[in-house]
Amino acid sequence: MSVSTGQAGNTDQQAASSTAAETSSEVVIETRGLTKVYRDFWGRQKVRALKALDLQVYRGEIFGLLGPNGSGKSTTIKLLLGLLFPTSGQAIVFGRDATDVENKQRVGYLPEESYLYRFLNAEETLDFYGRLFNMPAKQRRARVAELIELVGLGWAKRRQLKEYSKGMARRIGLAQALINDPELVLLDEPTTGLDPIGTRQMKDLILELKARGKTVLMCSHLLADVQDVCDRIAILHQGELKELGRVDTLLTVQDVTQIRARGLPKEAEDEIRAVIARHGGELLAMEHPTTTLEELFLHIVREAEAHPGRRATGLARPAEKAPAAQ
Ligand SMILES: Nc1ncnc2c1ncn2[C@@H]1O[C@H](COP(=O)(O)OP(=O)(O)O)[C@@H](O)[C@H]1O
Ligand SMILES: [Mg+2]
User: Fold this and answer.
1) Are 288 and 314 contained in the same domain?
2) Domain count, the chain
3) Residue 4 within a domain
4) Is the pTM above the cut of 0.90?
5) pLDDT digits over 12-25, tens only?
6) 51: CA distance to ligand 2 center in Å?
7) Which of 87, 35, 100, 66 is nearest to 247 (CA)?
8) Of 227, 251, 275, which residue sits at a domain end?
9) pLDDT per residue over 61-70, tens digit each?
10) Mutation test of ligand 1: which of 39, 74, 241 has the most ligand atoms closer than 8 Å to its C-beta?
11) 51: CB partners within 8 A, 6+ apart
């Protein structure tokens, strides 16, 4: 039996937060009143994309910027990369202004859409980016091999990128962002357009980056992605910061205790009801939990791969993970 307070997160989230202790208090990213107003061709005010954002991201954490389309996520990332200049306020990365060229060596970037050369293969692509960072040939070869291994594209490394699926393209995009072994990685919508398997692989890669000591700032409009991997999140809406905090704290329902058990006889359930009543508590639910659609889908696909040809019996269910998201 496992007892958890509130809605416990799923296993990924726990993986993320169990290593969160390694997050240091060293500030890697800081924004102060960061504001961006896009102007049109004539210099007239057009869109207030980001309004006085104050944020701090610490070394070793996975920080998520969450918000609907147009809420200013990509604008924030571009300001942190020094690709855009703020209208007012400051973006500070590694203690320097975000536009400082010194930072280029220490930051990796996966854009919302990667524009990679369609006629190069994975090795050639990464080799090309290694050259841009003036890496010597021997180091480049080792780094390219290591990254292809990391993103799991060894089997397709000699194929031209035009033959890559969206998921493979996203993974080579991530490898490209890591070519200079950056300490800080900025990922703009890393899972958009990926199927559940591709999404799972990308999320695992992001957790792997954290395990290797990187600081990750990712943005997404997909709630589940952010919930699964991020230690802390900021929610943006129309350029304004609406919420900021640890994911587990934000998702915990403080006054609810969840009890989960397997193989419990009816009498035990009755006893539990009695205990709760005796202590003046209110029984909200005692039920058989559902799994998430993602869990179910991944389970079915894994089963299909393990047992080709087997047809659905209606009995296939992923093993209950305790504690798991409900
Ligand atoms: N280059 C640009 N010129 C004018 N407006 C822009 C430009 N880029 C983004 N915007 C606008 O700024 C707002 C925030 O955009 P963006 O940062 O891309 O949002 P998100 O990444 O959260 O979807 C949107 O209203 C968008 O239309
Ligand atoms: Mg965007």
Assistant:
1) yes
2) 2
3) no
4) no
5) 444 444 444 456 78
6) 16
7) 66
8) 251
9) 999 998 888 9
10) 74
11) 35, 72, 238, 239, 240
